Amino acid sequence: MEWIILVLIGLFAGSLGSLVGLGGGVIIVPALVYFGGYTAFLEDLGPQVAVGTSLVIMIFTGLSSTLSYIKHKTVDYKSGLLFFLGAGPGSVIGAIVNRSFNMESFNLYFGFFMILVSFILMVRNKIKPIEAFKQSSYQQRFTDAEGREYTYGFPPVLGAGIAFAVGFTSGLFGIGGGSLMVPAMILIFLFPPHVAVATSMFMVFLSAMVSSATHIYLGNVNWLYALALIPGAWIGAKGGAYLNSKLQSAALVNILRIILVLIGIRLVYQGFTG
Asked: d(Cα 116, Cα 122) in Å, to the nearest integer?
């Protein structure tokens, strides 16, 4: 029974993570904590092992979805690599700081973080885009399937700085970092949502390799659970990438917002009730 549950968790997390650029960790980490602590199906895992195991899965989710997005030509490789210059070191530091968490504090901080991101998405249409970045030292252009042209850009130092914070949360919470990076790319740097999601998954793949290596070194990975989660996550990521190409941009943002606020409320409740 426990292996079926793990495969289904991986499938759902991979699909959802690839669809909206989260990476899937926002599903895997709470699921491992919940099933381990509140049911008899899985071994009770601490936050360190749940995060470390999740980040190993993010490698495969990120790779699978990136390969799918490559076919749709929505991955901005240069931007992804610039972001990774900040996200890589940040993810290592986050993985080290994660050692100080107990379960209650982990749930509280993780939950509040999810709610904060969902709030940003709720007010995104009321926030004036920072058009000045269109004239930044680094600019890109993208034409979508309907022929609409987008211009976006960002100062490389600022982009790497934001990515550092994203990488830190990735190593800290095991979420891949897309939950913060996608809104930042859309709101601040004016990325088209589909490009933001695809590029986020490319960055998730790169940063997950670094942060998971740190957690492996610290002994924070349950390899049996990881092996059960990987097949579902790989298949789900391909399905999520396919659905992404069929949905409108507004739908992607709405899905992301609803998912984050529900998970955030649940985790905060768990953190307060212990």
From this structure: 10
The pLDDT score that the predictor gives to residue 250 is: 61
Residue 184's nearest CA partner among 230, 241, 134, 121 is 121
pTM: 0.80
The more confident residue out of 37 and 118 is: 118
- Contact call for residues 87 and 177 (beta carbons, < 8 A): yes
Of the candidates 254, 251, 247, 134, the residue with the CA atom closest to the CA atom of residue 190 = 134
So what's the pLDDT on residue 41? 57
Higher pLDDT, 257 or 274: 257
Give the integer Cα–Cα distance in Å for 255 and 209: 27
HSE-up (13 A, CA, CB side) for residue 169: 24
Q: Which residue has the tokens 């059960």?
A: 228
Residue-level length of the chain: 274
CA gap 105, 266 in Å, rounded:
14
**Nearest C-alpha neighbor of 243 from the set 24, 41, 65, 2:** 65
**Bridge partners for 152 per DSSP:** 140
pLDDT in tens, 162-178: 999 989 988 888 877 77
